[in-house]
């Protein structure tokens, strides 16, 4: 609340905030060959290299990273096997390995799943209790320093204080956050994303857009600077998406998307405003149960969420439609413009190969009630999700039904 | 240079870069009352409080800051008297004071001039030679930690690795840069800017826009992400400017401008691209000689620079005109659109009270040759300035003549 010049209490104006993004970002071609240099710069002597599997090995990336560590005389152990929607089991394994080997630095080589798994390990390795405490709301204030070598533009975990892990005991997918989760350094080489298949690239782009939408839909008013930054980042990925899904070798387009993906989620465009995040919660149930790609899930969830919640601020939806999708403003009936924006989003995601309904994800109607309940009450939640609109279980179920 | 899929060497694509902005930003109402808390967090035990004069004292801000330091048991000395276009004399005085009093933290309370002067002192205090070395090109790798409490949205020094000082021995105005110049923390309370006179507010807005233009005009191609971010920040300040020059008490508008001013200059929207900065060099001659406000000088310089250099990339100027000023694209003759954009910029700056020519700055035609020579050859320069177009002395003189 704020006492303004008109002598009325106004609510929902820009909130006080802290913004602290101390990650050392190294961006560009071949920078991964200097991984050892940066590990040393940030104090690492015994490194856990954490990664997924096949492509990081096949492409020779893992070998280049090891060579770079050896050249600096840095000792390391390794743990592969991270899967999309990373699981708690491997985290426990990583924590044990760090303790046994006296690891003092965690180096993630991969995408959001690998980075998130690395963050969980880095926090768990220096914590006496169960690392899952952090994913039930405990703030992460201490962790081993983390470095990342990013292989897909998507999650933004390379610059964020966040991590999402699926607990195999109940298949809860939950997030943790804290300053200690900001990587010490992140190496972003767009050339590493040139070997990705189009579907994965499109999933990444969808995730980036979702991170921007989660921040865009807010109850905070008069936040022009963050509105405009979000719109600018959306315009960037919308322009570049068809260029990279058609030709993944387009370095320039990959580079623009990669920096946009980091900026979309390090929160410089989300400061001082209420954010939503219900769509992520709704999607997490889908990817936890059906193990679909997080980006693909978001492509199904977000248009449904928009359709259901549009009425809460028609003008905000119209603003997005006009500024980002180039829709004509219908001044007599802005709702038409808002709807046109959602239709444009659906078309766009379809055009880059994203699914648009439950069938496309392998999701089942009979699971809706269970998912809606878990999203609102599972694992410590208290009945509502979302900051723009507080959704109850019945709302979440209705949104799932819009995806059939 | 980059070997692309079409098997041709392409020049001028996005460059490798490092982005490192570790400043702890604390934004919002009354945050200055926690200055002591943040000084302590970043290790300060004996502080130099550096400031300008009148308003910081009259408004009670300085007292609030001292109270906050005392409450944390932090000792301090103070040095006021910073003037706009800060001078080397006071820097030497500050360095001597730091050494004599064993100061370990410099706290700037003021605008860009105060912060820049504080940075120079912080570097000089731990350097054996003359601090001016840094302003002649030596990289700043070591300095006392710096905190800032910002009182005007303008220079962006609260988040930048830069500082500009005028050497009284010859009246050279020069910049220094280096990672050690990024403040440890910066407190941004938009309410502190509500007492500024409209002319100063408008000068600050002009400076912010100039920082964005210096980055926008580039020879690097296909840098959509930074183009769009710059455009978004320009659209923000263009919308908010009339609201704050008409009513400086508009907190929300001041807040949007304040965050835009930081983002405009911490370089997140300037990464990976050639930047220009000739207009700043051209302006620095004016403010060094006539002691005009830096923002006012930029309002005179930039349209002239644009007019002179437009021909080097008509489409980039047209893009700015369409996306930021809402000009119609003239597809038959994009030069008309480019010109319309420059005209819109002139009108905008006039509308918020900025001067538009030499007379408005108190500058004199007879000094043109001297200023053009100093801009290109003074104090170690080697004949050209600018990254978008390399300007020689005769070009700079011609640009000055366009301001008559």
Automatic annotation (TrEMBL), chains A, B:
Coiled coil: none annotated. Keywords: Oxidoreductase. It comes from the Bacteria. One of its GO terms (cellular component) is cytosol. SUPFAM superfamilies: Dehydroquinate synthase-like. InterPro entries: ADH_Fe/GldA, ADH_Fe_C, BDH-like. The keyword Lipoprotein does not apply. CDD domains: BDH. Pfam families: ADH_Fe_C (PF25137), Fe-ADH (PF00465). Residues 22-190 form the Alcohol dehydrogenase iron-type/glycerol dehydrogenase GldA domain. Gene3D superfamilies: 3.40.50.1970, Dehydroquinate synthase-like - alpha domain. Residues 204-401 form the Fe-containing alcohol dehydrogenase-like C-terminal domain. One of its GO terms (molecular function) is metal ion binding. This is Uncharacterized protein. It comes from Kineothrix alysoides.
